[in-house]
Amino acid sequence: MARVSRWVVVVLCGVLLSVTAAPALAADPVPQPQTPAPAATPPASETSPGTSPEADAAIATQPTAPDYVFPIPDLKPGLGTYDGSWFWFQPHLAILEDYTWFEQDDASLAQVGKQNDKFDQRAFRPTLTFRGKGGLKWELFVAADYQEKRTRDKTVFSLYDLRFTVPLGPVKISVGKMKPPNAYEVAGLSAQLPQQERVLLVFVDSRNDGVQLSGLLAGDRVTWAAGVFNDWLETGASRPEDNATDYVARVTGLAWVSPDNMNYLHLGLDLQRRGSDDGMMRFKGRPESNVTSYYIDTGSFPADHADEVGLEAVWQRKGVTLMGEYFDARVDAPQSGNPHFSGGYATASWVVTGDGRPYIRPLGAAGGILPKGRFGAVELVAKFSYINATDGPIDGGVLNKWNFGVNWWASAQWKVGVSYGSANLDKNGLIGNTKMVLMRLQWLY
Fold first, then answer.
1. Is 198 exposed, middle or buried (0-12, 13-18, 19+ CB in 10 A)?
2. Which of 4, 149, 221, 435 is the most exposed place for a label (fewest CB within 10 A)?
3. Is the distance from CB of 315 to CB of 265 less than 8 angstroms?
4. Which of 175, 184, 201 is CA-nearest to residue 7?
């Protein structure tokens, strides 16, 4: 907790300075976030790419009061919201409950050991978004997270986000612990994706400490964000040089979008120079699961840095979504022959009831499905993913996985999902197969 408190002190000092410097509200009232219509996009003045993706995606997909009641009732939007003279804040909560079954062949057992069927408290994540109403329109986003001990390397409780943001003209500067702008899978709220779990965390961090600049261009059709990240404040290292420094940037654009933001073609480019921890690097990841062992794992090896390039694309029209990403990592590691790793995925989904995900322009990503019918929305999902972390003397594994699933978006806040996956791992001279069935119940408010 002492390590986390460093960031708490830094961010809270920034908040106090901003509030003190802000002029009175009476001379310049600021419109506050309202619950928009289902397909609406939050005003650019109230959000920015990489600022509060969880909160903004949740706000954007909260319904106006329907004339009917969903089979699983929703809580009324806006509960707990405070709208005072100096600031506005709104709470949100994400709860995800999983159960996963596994079936492995002998080669898989030899590679990664037995993967036990298990229940998983995938996430219990309360968040708070504060926005200033004075002349300096600051924002503070705070998120905590609880997960099962067996799925965390060190602790079950984590201060997930602590991000303070202020505008500098058309640019916003954010400081603290946040999502780096490094992949579509990370940019928005993962629980609103068609697939249940991410696969590209082998190459990117879902959270890191740093400073980021972000903005919007071309009538909010283009987002950009760039930052420098180093988590030495949290790890307790005596100096930043002992921890990896990452330089990250993401640019997205809407090549085509309908007036209601429900049909679109999104394209994106991700760039990252990933540093080493005291001269060592390691690439590791799970097979789209939160409870398995690390199937992909290079182990630590001497390296200076890795240069990564990512490409992303999302096309949606009338309930059909095609999306994919590709990451290429070239590692500066002469002792290991400068290995080259890569990975990506392709997902296709069809919402049988015709509903879709509204595009949230300031996020550079889509929000969640807002069912238009009383009985919710049904989505069929197919996904293929692969990770190649084997090159030269580095045998981190080559993973290929097919995944098929059904999501019932029972309301704007509730989802029930089930998915079946078959993963082949080529590692240690063996090719092992793991089949897994994941059931999920989630509530997002």
1. buried
2. 149
3. yes
4. 175
SS3 27: helix
CATH label of the domain that carries residue 66: 2.40.160.10
Domain that holds residue 222: 2-444
204, 382, 196: which is closest to 289 by C-alpha?
196
Sequence-distant (6+) residues with CB within 8 A of 345 are 195, 199, 200, 324, 325, 383, 384, 385, 386
CA 335/CA 367 separation, integer angstroms: 44
Q: What is the pTM of this model?
A: 0.84
pLDDT tens-digit series, residues 409-441:
999 899 999 999 999 999 999 999 999 999 999
pLDDT band at 9 (very low <50, low <70, confident <90, very high): very low
Distance CA(137)–CA(19), nearest Å, equals 9
At which residue do the structure tokens 């004075």 appear? 134
Q: How many CB atoms neighbour CB 308 within 10 A? A: 23
Residue 406 to residue 294: CA distance in whole angstroms: 26
List, in order, residues 6 or more apart from 185 with CB less than 8 Å away: 193, 198, 199, 200, 201, 204, 325
CA atoms within 13 A on the CB side of 330: 3
C-alpha angle with apex 363: 421 to 171, nearest 5 degrees?
145
Query: Which amino acid is located at 111 in the chain?
Result: Q
The domain total for the chain is: 1
156, amino acid identity = V
Q: Which two tokens stand for residue 420?
A: 């079946």
The tokens for 98 are: 């999983």
Concatenated DSSP letters of 230-255: --HHHHT-SSGGGS--EEEEEEEEEE
Per residue in 329-376, pLDDT (tens digit) is: 999 999 999 999 999 999 999 999 999 999 999 999 999 898 988 889
